[in-house]
Amino acid sequence: MADPTDGAPGHHHDAPVPGGIAVDERLNSSGNAIVRALPPELSERASELFKALGDPTRLKLLYLIAESNTSEICSHELSVALRVSAPTITHHMKKLAAAKLVNREQRGKWAYYTVNSDEFNRVHALIHEL
């Protein structure tokens, strides 16, 4: 059976995107694009990011690193600043690094962290929109 809206003005077909997910280009009654699903890769990335940001300690760590007077901060300094154990810092920093919010460099027994400025700036702007 033929689509009665085929060729009708203002009608748009679903546009394919990577991962086989279709994005509907039409607008809803509010004038917003109709959103149906995220591609699997983007779903995973968003989930990882929000998990990392979903813990107050990780947010404190992220902002401590971003506000550091030096370009990097040692895991020991983070442990002292938040008064938590080194294993706890390691756990939280692994989550932040996996979400690509911080960069990690191992030197001897200490890890040094820098903020990923592009990612941090996007997160910072999002937080301030709340």
Automatic annotation (TrEMBL):
> Which Gene3D superfamilies does its entry note?
Winged helix-like DNA-binding domain superfamily/Winged helix DNA-binding domain
Q: Which residues form a coiled coil?
A: none
Q: Per the UniProt record, which residue ranges are transmembrane?
A: none
Arranged from A to Z, the UniProt key words for this protein are: DNA-binding, Transcription, Transcription regulation
Which InterPro entries does the record cross-reference, listed alphabetically? ArsR-like_HTH, HTH_ArsR_DNA-bd_dom, HTH_MetalResp_TranReg, WH-like_DNA-bd_sf, WH_DNA-bd_sf
Q: Does the keyword DNA-binding apply?
A: yes
Which domain of life does the protein's organism represent? Bacteria
Which stretches of sequence are listed as region Disordered? 1-21
Q: HTH arsR-type domain location, by residue?
A: 38-130
Put simply, this protein is called Winged helix-turn-helix transcriptional regulator
